[in-house]
Amino acid sequence: MDERRDEFAEGGARARRELVREIEACGALTDPAWRDAFATVPRHLFVPFYYVPGSGGYERLWSGDPDPGQRDRWLRGAYEDTAVATRVRDGELLSSASQPSLMALMLHALDVRDGDDVLEIGAGTGYNAALLCHRLGEEHVTTVDLDEEITESARTHLAAAGHRPAVVAADGARGCPERAPYDRIVATCAVPSVPYPWIARCRPGALVLTPLSTGLLLLRVRDRAHAEGRFLATSAYFVPLRGAAGRAPRPDPAGDERFRFLWGLVGGTLDRREALSLWLRERRPERERFGVTVSGDRQWAWLDDPAGPYAWPLPDA
Question: What are phi and psi of 90, to 5 degrees?
């Protein structure tokens, strides 16, 4: 849909202005270039329908609802600073559109520069790719998803908003070699460890940002076999990557949120009592004290120091 023929264009523009003010107020939108992207890209074109929890399960809201009140409700929800469920099957959430303020935080951390080539793992609705296109130009953006239905939908949404980046149906764990090398890789799905092909597809000095455990890991690539970095301070919950590297992390809904993060990193190495003892001994460490090193065919998570006493191998990627 060309936004000039979009009946929701005016209401969407008002809602975007309010969303941008809200994201700015929480400190997640400080770069003028990203502010312009969020103020310009029409999010409602990327979520023509979505699902909200109800007493009897999920309720579907959509732009074509014959009830004007429901259409207004759909449009307001499209611009709330929250994640929205976009695919549900048999009552199970399969995919969602990320919370805009978290997206802004991730895009800021990605530290893109003019001319950078970016690979996004997990096409989703296409909205994040559209923000990247607005900032960098569509020729610099590649987005990948294993599910052809998702990539086709993302491609349609992107075209409706006037963007035509490379949208590829493939296993994101492979890093889309045909479009490499990349200056930035950003994943919008959780991984149990860093897929080695991601590092191999990057130029030296590239950044890789990915959800891991319940955090966001930012790696600096040294060369095709080495990368290292720390976690951002924020928590982050994403659906797992599907495909060769897509094993879901061990669920642990109980307890302190910071301990759940640690448990997601060390649960394959330590038992729960050992992990809890470490966590208490180290004064309940925050996420930014943790990091990951990728070296050749090995990678490990660590606390405070990559060569220090606290290090745990991550599963093979």
Answer: 55, 40
